[in-house]
Known about the structure:
By secondary structure, the chain is mainly alpha-helical. Helix content is 68%, strand content 0%.
Amino acid sequence: MPTITRFEEIEAWKTARELTKMIYSITDEGKISKDFGLRDQIRRASVSIMSNIAEGFESKTQASFIRYLAIAKASAGEVRSQLYVAQDVKYLTEQQFTTLFQMAEKASRQLSRFIGYLETHPESRRIREDSAEYQV
């Protein structure tokens, strides 16, 4: 696996970013836009996926990174659960539900594979600072 130097290079983060954009767009219209509790919670959960990947990447140890990735995966599960609520109360079309659900599942699978890789390659390094210059 090539060295990842920025969290923006992580495929699961890219998927979570796309999911978050879609969640924000869909929750800006229709009945779900007026259900402030559900709207805000599903938005927070989707943002949490992205944020925990980024925060974990910037953390000091690989063990900490894995822990943050697990939290991001849990947030993907939370998004899927909230999508069921939105579907059950008819805030989403079947197509919207399916698209968002598949995207959340994809992020979850990517996170699982990434966690598995990091757990089986404890010697791998996420960040290389070969040419880093620090100014104070």
